[in-house]
């Protein structure tokens, strides 16, 4: 059933949390410098911006390095086993540091914490962790920290997804003054058979479009040039709320504000509507770049993955997209070694990749996640088979990227200048409309501006050019 309005946390609760942030700041015996270590996707990156916003309100300042910080927090990911192992490995590394600096405070949060039993595991196996919480109670961070410092006890609080609720107006420290993330929806309802995200992020909850538009307008007023709209499945934006705008309508509204560039991720191929494609084609500011994860090229595997589209349907969407937005740059995510994947089925992924001709692709070896449907399937694929397959797929994509990028040579692209090269201060780097890094000779005063660059050569994952 649809909600009649977006489910926001009561404004009083956010006010109460802000008061607790200031109460924390007034404590004497508290950490003064922080370091936030982030794993995972843009959602997590944006959550970390909120954490930093709260940390600043709590009177802390960024530490020079992880080693010297009084407080270190790990915002974790668990989408694949290696993401989780990396996070836990670094948490353990702090155990040694804490031996020499007993006053060091350590916290762990994020998706990994939402897995069943994780709270208990942290309490048992990681006694040097002071505070642990999940994705649903990020807004309670100040309260948990205050309680840990005041009581000098460990605080572990994981909230289950009670439909989740949306915190508005928490402080945010944006990493860049030129581009900004805007979360438009939380959670995921899709339950792809291999994926842990719906279990750790809860059900889909759309923010009110009025809130999103207001946030975008204020970013525009602050001089932001590029916004990235975030959601696990942005195409189903608004579907959970009665009378809310559709994603295509939301984009059309945001386009009117005047922000130079609008991007969004991630789009689920099953509901890329004609309406959305039309908006992309006619809008002024929506980048002609679309990340459209296909995951696999074989229909049996796609069905087993619960992706709810076929290879043919996906390819039809690509044809329509290209017909209406001829210069669109497509990128994707691919999984190899899904349970039961035969050599022929894997070849279907290879042929699909060639047929679409993506500008680039993220390739992953399937990683079983406890509690998901696919983890319990028979015929898990051996590591060496998956490794061989992924190598082959990477090689195929590399060639396609190379020939696609070669086609950009001679074109003039608008580039939002990000930074000077670390090795050579006379070389600038930025992103073109297609989200590809472009390097060119220039000076640091161009940073934050959108400039015109003629592409002169193509590297493996970047382009080179000259200012015109
Ligand atoms: N919501 C997004 C992606 C979220 S996770 C979407 O639906 O496209 C990002 C990517 O990680 C996925 O696209 C998928 O390719 C990969 N992934 C997710 N679970 C995985 C698993 N168990 N093993 C390997 N790759 C996985
Ligand atoms: Fe995971 Fe599928 Fe949801 Fe993406 S759409 S987050 S892959 S369950
Ligand atoms: Fe990882 Fe959570 Fe994102 S599991 S990919 S950080 S939603």
List strands and helices in order, with pairings.
Elements: H1 11-26, E1 33-38, H2 42-57, E2 61-62, E3 71-76, H3 81-100, E4 105-110, H4 118-125, E5 131-133, H5 141-151, E6 155-157, E7 179-183, E8 185-186, H6 197-201, E9 205-206, H7 209-221, E10 226-230, H8 247-257, E11 261-265, H9 274-282, E12 289-291, H10 299-304, H11 311-324, E13 329-336, H12 343-356, E14 360-365, H13 383-408, E15 412-420, E16 427-432, E17 437-441, E18 450-458, E19 462-467
Order of neighbouring strands in the sheet with most strands: 2-1-3-4-5-6
Count of DSSP helices? Answer: 13
Instruction: Let me know the largest β-sheet.
Output: 6 strands, parallel
The share of residues in helices is 25-40%
Q: Into how many domains do the coordinates divide? A: 4
Tell me the name of the CATH homologous superfamily of the largest domain.
Methylthiotransferase, N-terminal domain
Q: Beta-sheet strand percentage?
A: 15-25%
The CATH architecture name of the largest domain reads 3-Layer(aba) Sandwich
């Amino acid at each position: 059933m649809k909600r009649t309005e977006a489910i926001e946390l009561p404004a009083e609760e956010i006010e109460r949390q802000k008061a607790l942030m200031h109460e924390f700041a007034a404590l004497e015996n508290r950490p003064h410098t922080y370091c936030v270590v982030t794993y995972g996707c843009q959602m997590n990156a944006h959550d970390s911006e909120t954490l930093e916003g709260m940390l600043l309100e709590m009177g802390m300042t960024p530490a020079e390095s992880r080693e010297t910080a009084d407080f270190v927090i790990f915002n974790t990911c668990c989408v694949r086993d290696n993401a989780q192992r990396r996070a836990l490995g670094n948490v353990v590394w702090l155990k040694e540091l804490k031996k020499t600096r007993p006053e060091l405070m350590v916290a762990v949060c994020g998706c990994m914490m939402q897995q069943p039993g994780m709270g208990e595991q942290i309490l048992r196996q990681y006694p040097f962790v002071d505070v642990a919480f999940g994705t649903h109670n990020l807004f309670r961070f100040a309260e948990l920290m205050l309680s840990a410092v005041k009581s000098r006890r460990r605080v572990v609080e994981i909230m289950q997804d009670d439909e989740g609720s949306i915190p508005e107006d928490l402080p945010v420290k944006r990493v860049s003054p030129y581009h900004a993330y805007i979360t438009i929806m939380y959670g995921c309802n899709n339950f792809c058979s291999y994926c842990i995200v719906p279990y750790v992020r809860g059900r889909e909850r759309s923010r009110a479009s009025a809130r999103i538009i207001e946030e975008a307008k204020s970013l525009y007023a602050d001089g932001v040039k590029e916004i990235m709209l975030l959601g696990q499945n942005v195409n189903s934006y608004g579907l959970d709320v009665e009378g809310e705008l559709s994603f295509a309508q939301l984009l059309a509204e945001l386009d009117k504000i005047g922000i130079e560039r609008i991007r969004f991720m991630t789009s689920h191929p099953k509901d890329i509507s004609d309406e959305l494609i039309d908006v992309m084609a006619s809008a002024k500011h929506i980048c002609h770049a679309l990340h459209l994860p296909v995951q696999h090229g074989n229909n049996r595997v796609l069905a087993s993955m619960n992706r709810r589209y076929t290879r043919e349907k996906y390819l039809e969407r690509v044809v329509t997209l290209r017909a209406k937005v001829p210069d669109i740059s497509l990128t994707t995510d691919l999984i190899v070694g899904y349970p039961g994947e035969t050599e022929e089925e894997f070849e279907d992924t290879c042929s699909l990749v060639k047929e679409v001709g993506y500008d680039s692709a993220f390739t992953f070896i399937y990683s079983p996640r406890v509690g998901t449907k696919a983890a319990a399937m028979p015929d898990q694929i051996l590591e060496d088979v998956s490794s061989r397959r992924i190598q082959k797929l990477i090689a195929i994509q590399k060639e396609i990227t190379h020939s696609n990028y070669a086609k950009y040579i001679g074109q003039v692209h608008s580039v939002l200048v990000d930074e000077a090269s670390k090795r050579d201060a006379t070389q600038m780097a930025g992103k073109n409309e297609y989200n590809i890094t472009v390097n060119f000779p220039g000076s640091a005063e161009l940073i934050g501006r959108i400039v015109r660059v003629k592409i002169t050569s193509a590297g493996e994952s970047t382009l080179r050019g000259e200012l015109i």
